Amino acid sequence: MLETVYGTITVSRKKKFEKTLYSDKDGIRFATPQVVAQYRAKRIKYKTLADISCGIGGQVIFFAKECDFVYAVEIDPQKIEYARKNCELHGIDNVEFICGDALSTDVIRQIPKVDIIFSDPARPAEENKRQVVSLEPGIPNVISAYSGKTDNFAFEAPPQMPPQRIPFDCEREYMSLNGQLNRLTLYFGNLKQCECSAVSLPCGAHISSTNTACIMNETQTPKTYAYEPEPSVIKADLLPQLAGSIKHDSGNIDLELFTIDKKRLLLTSGIPIRHTMLKNHYSIIQVTDFEPAAINSLLKKHDVGTVVLRAGVDPAEYWTIRNKIENGLSGKNTIHLFVKNKKAILCKVI
Ligand SMILES: C[S@@+](CC[C@H](N)C(=O)[O-])C[C@H]1O[C@@H](n2cnc3c(N)ncnc32)[C@H](O)[C@@H]1O
Fold first, then answer.
1. 162-215 tens-digit pLDDT
2. Is 44 found in the same domain as 108?
3. Does 31 sit in the ligand 1 pocket, CB within 6 Å?
4. What is the CATH number of the domain that holds 262?
C-alpha cells in the first residue's frame, strides 16, 4: 500500500487515521482525515478553542495536541462518547466535552471567552448544488450566538462551492489531499490572511490571492510538456497566481492553458518545469486521432503497459473503448490519455 510521510508520523494513503477511531459508520465518514486535521490544527494554533460540532472528535484530537485547552460540543450523545474515547485513545486530557445543541443558551453559557470558535457543520449527504444555507449549525447563527466569546471563527464548508458562492468576509482555503479536492475552510477575524488560498496535502504547499498573478493565454495546441494543477488551485480560482509563481521560479517561460473539457485542464509549455502545486508533470509523446485500435498499436511501440483514460467517455462505451486501447499491452510505461475534440493526447509522467 502507498504511504505518505507527514511530519513525524506515517499515514497510509488509504487510511483516514493512523489509529483506528471509535465510531459509527456516519461518524467516521464525516470525520476530518488526520492529515487535514493536523494541518488545520497547526494553522489555528491558539491557547483556547471550542469545536462546537465535534462529531467523533477526528479534528478535536489534533486541536487538543496544539492548544492549551479545547471545549468539544456535540448534539449527538453517542458521537460525543466516541469523541471522548478517541481523545483517551490519544492520551489527551485537555478537552471538556459538552453534549447539547451548540446554539442553545445552555451550551453557550458553558463556553467561556476563547481564542477561536471552530465548527465543521453537518450537511446533507447528497445535494444537487452545495450551498452554505444547508449547513447545520448555520454559519451566521454560530457567529451571532458566539460573538461575545471571540471575533475569530473558522468553519469547514463543502469544497465543491466556488469562492463566489460564499457570501462572507473571510478567507476561503481549498485543500487537496493526495491530488483530490478534499476540504474547504473559511477563516474569519484575525485568522483571515487573504481572500482565497489553496493548499496541497500532505506536502503542505500553499498559494494565495496575495501571490503575483500572471494571466495565461489559452491554446488549442499542446506543447512538449503538460502539467495538471492541484484541484485546490483550480477550485480557488488561483491559476493566474500559480502561473505567476511558476514564472517567478522558472523564468519567463511560455506557459499556456490547454482546456481539455469542463472537468479537466492542463498547463502546457515548451520547456520542462517543476512546481509543488502541479500534481502531475507530463511529456507529451503524441497527439493523434482518437481511434482506439490505432492508439493500441502506437502504445505497443512506446512499450506501454498501463493506460489511464482521462476522458469524458460515454459510460455505456467505456469498457469497450478501454479494452480496445489496452488489448495486449505488456510494456513497462504508463500513459495518461486525454481526449479533446476527438484528438488523443498521449502523456507520459515525468
Ligand atoms: C461533519 S460532523 C463533524 C465531524 C468532526 N469534525 C470530526 O472530524 O469528527 C458534524 C457534526 O455536527 C453535529 N451537529 C449538528 N448540529 C449541531 C448542533 N446544533 N450542535 C452541536 N452539534 C451539532 C452533528 O451531530 C455531527 O456530528
1. 999 999 999 999 999 999 999 999 999 999 999 999 999 999 999 999 999 999
2. yes
3. yes
4. 3.30.2130
For residue range 88-142, list pLDDT tens digits in order: 999 999 999 999 999 999 999 999 999 999 999 998 888 888 888 889 999 999 9
pTM of the model: 0.92
Cα 155 to ligand 1 centroid, rounded to whole Å: 12
* H-run or E-run covering 58: none
> Distance from the CA of 79 to the center of ligand 1, in angstroms?
9
Instruction: Quote the CA–CA distance of 22 and 31 in Å, as a whole number.
Output: 11
For residues 200 and 341, state if they share a domain.
no
Q: What are the phi and psi torsion angles at 348 (to 5°)?
A: -105, 130
**Separation of CA 235 and ligand 1 centre (Å):** 25
Q: How many whole angstroms separate alpha carbon 263 and alpha carbon 157?
A: 21
Question: Which of 35, 53, 104 has the most ligand 1 atoms within 8 A of CB, as the residue to mutate?
Answer: 53
Number of domain units in the chain: 2
Our answer on whether the CB atom of 26 is closer than 6 Å to any ligand 1 atom is no
Assess whether 131 and 183 both reside in one domain. Answer: yes
289 and 342 assigned to the same domain: yes
- Enumerate the β-bridge partners of residue 12: 3
